[in-house]
Specification:
A hairpin with a 6-residue loop joins β11 and β12. The protein is 47% helix and 16% strand. It has 21 helices and 16 strands.
Length: 614
Amino acid sequence: MASPKSRPRDGYPGRALSLTLAIMVALVGIMIGTGHTTPRLGIDLAGGTSVTLKATSSDKNAINPANMAIASEIMSQRVNGTGVTESTTQVQGSDEIVVNVPKGTSSTELATELAQTAKLYFRPVLAEQQQIDASALPKSSPSASSNGGAKPSGAASPSASSSEKPKASAPGASASPSASKTQGDALSQDLKAGSSASAHPSASTSAKASAAATGTAKAAATPSAAPTSGTVSGQTAGTVPAALQSEFNAIDCTTKHGRDVAQVTANRAKETDQVVSCSSDATSNTWTKYALDKVAVDGTSISKAQSNLSTQTGQWEVDLSFNSHGAGQFANITGQLTKNQPPANEFAIQLDGLVQSSPSVNEAITGGQATISGSFDQASASQLANVLSYGSLPLDFQTQEVVTVSPELGGSQLDAGLIAGLIGLILVVVYSLVYYRGLGLVAVASLLVSAILTWSLMSLLGGAIGFALNLPAVCGAIVAIGITADSFVVYFERVRDELREGATLRPAVRNAWPRARRTILVSDFVSFLAAAVLYFFTVGKVQGFAFTLGLTTLLDLVVVFLFTKPLMTLLARRKFFNSGHPWSGLSPERLGVRNPLRDSRNSRRPVPTAGKEA
């Protein structure tokens, strides 16, 4: 029986080289496939967008240096929340903040995200009213108006109401079939009981039952109290306190002015106040107006917010995790809502004065998890999660100005930096070829592999996390050339030391690696530690230098372990290097290796003494 083949003492260098090649091909392929073929440049090199925001508050004393500093820090975290975007935030004057973001960021989305105060509340719904923008309806269809109008006193059955609003069920169960069919086959459920609460914006703005369940709710608005011309309003379901009734009747959510009034009023209200609010968006020209109770759960109780692609609905959603206090409040309010009839069994998720969604509940939800799902795309879900992750702004802000800024340094300075890096690279290559000769080709090939990996990753990170290459980052890449070259020098010199001690090339390459590896690991660890300290304890452009330095240091380890060492192992088997050719960089004469026979002859020669010389 043949014994299994033992592993070669030199290992399998071909496998490591194949893995390196596969990594490079994959990165370049992804780079070309995604269209991110060049690194994203920072604002100092390529220009960008400048947004000026003005602080507003009903309390003039609230606009103070402390609150402005907090707001500036939160805005900086928001725009840098998905990566190293090299944005800068600066307080200007006593009530303005200027934010500069590199080219490639949508100015409209940026202004919206920065000005969003991120005041998130969970409020029980007292009543809701459907409002249709009649101006957007086809003029040739007068029946459309009547269909959405106020209905007579004949109330719909409770089942009709429940079929229009998805409900929570037992843990692991889905919404009722009628609810799922009404909302569309794409949604399997809107509120996940037991583990999460899910709400779809379309659910909050979709057609609701026009009357309450018999004996449990009353109409809060009559046809005579309908909004102004241009809208057709459905009848209200629910009970609205008398103090809130007139305000509820006066708000018209189909107009921007009406929504703005409701939003401003809701933002200025206290958490213990009852408010009127509008849905955040319309479905089929239909808006929903809400009468909401006092805040049941505050957004500050959220410990984490993250955007995800739902495996059930195939839509983007925002997952929320509450802290222990918020989880208890959430379980308590959902438990209370189960005792009510629609729409009083709903809670509204209100963000900055507008209702994002209003799911209904039929049993208490524990576990401290909630999910806001609906008409999100990846960008809007990420934006909402990013805003919620860093908390509410202490002040309200209005966008004063959004302008495009030109590069601070210009193309000539960028060219000068690139030329400096090219000169440094050429000098390293020339020195390697002159001093190490054949081994210098190994260094050049390793630098080329490192350059391909660095360029590919920087290009992909620009599209994935918004990494922007500013001038300090370019300096970090130039410094990385020396770090990478230093690793080659350490390994080459260890091999030469083994040859000076009388070993042949193949054992020298193998025996030199453990000692060289330790030195390289320690050296790169120190460099990476310095980069990490700079990244976490500095802000602005210095972070770009630290990020690039840390990235290239990690790539240096990849190149040395997966390319340089295996390549040296293969070359040691070639006669050109193994025989000590003068141009290999490993010739005995250049290394000062002594000939043992010549040394023994020299030892027999008499050594003259001082007396004989005299």
